[in-house]
Amino acid sequence: MDCGRESFPEKDLLHCPSKDAIEAHFMSCVKEADALKHKSQVINEMQKKDHKQLWMGLQNDRFDQFWAINRKLMEYPAEENGFRYIPFRIYQTTTERPFIQKLFRPVAADGQLHTLGDLLKDVCPSAVAPEDGEKKNQVMIHGIEPMLETPLQWLSEHLSYPDNFLHISIIPQPTD
User: Fold this and answer.
1) The Autophagy protein ATG5 alpha-helical bundle region domain covers which part of the protein (predicted)?
2) Is 107 helix (H, G, I), strand (E, B) or coil?
3) Which residues are registered as beta bridge partners of 140?
4) Rounded CA gap, 123 and 166, in Å?
5) How far is 122 from 63, CA to CA, in rounded Å?
6) Do 156 and 106 meet the contact criterion of CB atoms below 8 Å apart?
7) Contacts of 124-133 spanning 24+ positions with Cβ under 8 A
8) What is the pTM assigned to this prediction?
């Protein structure tokens, strides 16, 4: 099989011109996530070598190297009960829009922790079955279906992807 440029599945995958382009995109996503979580304070306090260590740890499958830096991006002051906003993207197979992203706080004005269900009801209400209705969709993160009652802050700390975003897929419920 010819693996030349003409056989690359351009319609299905984004073709990246170089490793540098991939690194730049990754770091851009990490910076965007930190802007949402900490007003960019954490990433801006890091040195260039920390950014490089984060990337190299990911690229070389070195969890300890990656997490030594990424841990800082997952912290928040105890008095704040969570991040400023939760970095997330919701993907749906039933829409032309590539993903949904908007500002959403992990803690409600009354101090209650927002849940995955709260996020979906606000951002993508069609994904959540009505109380008495039939479940039409699966909500997946990392290939698992977390309970809708799971606090969003916990999900963001424990199930974010290396770019520090929660990537949530809404998939039509299998009919078999």
Assistant:
1) 20-75
2) strand
3) 169
4) 14
5) 34
6) yes
7) 124/90, 124/92, 124/100, 124/170, 127/90, 127/92, 127/170
8) 0.87
CB atoms within 10 A of CB 140: 15
Q: Is 89 helix (H, G, I), strand (E, B) or coil?
A: strand
Phi, psi of 129 (to 5 degrees): -70, 140
pLDDT of 126-148, one tens digit each?
888 777 778 889 999 999 999 99
CB 171 within 8 A of CB 137: yes
Upper half-sphere CA count for residue 17 (Cβ side, 13 Å): 4
| Lookup: tokens for 135 | 């479940």
Q: Contact, 87 vs 164, CB < 8 A?
A: yes
**Token digits for 148?**
């809708």
